[in-house]
Amino acid sequence: QVQLVESGGGLVQAGGSLRLSCAASGRIFSMYTMGWFRQAPGKEREFVAAISWSGGNTYYADSVKGRFTISRDNAKNTVYLQMNSLKPEDTAVYYCAAPRRAYGSISSRGSEYDYWGQGTQVTVSS
């Protein structure tokens, strides 16, 4: 059974940084792309970033490009989201997600992901 567990959220002032982690278990981590999504109160879930199974390709939402960096450590079965220059509009619950299909292309569509973590709250104060 695939499990995804996020950590690293918290309260930070605008301009600050946080690093989110997502630990995966239940299958061979290095075979699967990984994604980060977020959902703010009263808003729909939105794509943040994704990384290919090898780590060689990444893709970002325009709203976070240049500020956030997604990476992975396949030896540790963990994907990271380094968030710099945080803004109040980045406040949301952040979720990591993984698809069922191995060696797939990275995607920004939530429907392409089958497994989701429980989320970690990120709050950015102004």
Topology:
Blueprint: E1 3-7, E2 10-13, E3 18-25, E4 34-39, E5 46-51, E6 58-60, E7 68-73, E8 78-83, E9 92-98, E10 115-116, E11 120-125
Parallel strand pairs: 2-11
Antiparallel strand pairs: 1-3, 3-8, 4-5, 4-9, 5-6, 7-8, 9-10, 9-11
What integer value in Å does the Rg equal?
13 Å
What does the overall shape look like? globular
Characterize the largest beta sheet: strand count, sense, and whether it forms a barrel: 7 strands, mixed
Assembly state: single chain
Question: Mean pLDDT, as a whole number?
Answer: 96
Description:
The chain is an all-beta fold and 126 residues long. Helices cover 0% and strands 47% of the residues. It contains no helices and eleven strands. Strands 2, 4, 5, 6, 9, 10 and 11 form a seven-stranded mixed beta sheet that branches. A hairpin with a 4-residue loop joins strand 7 (68-73) and strand 8. It starts with a strand and ends with a strand.
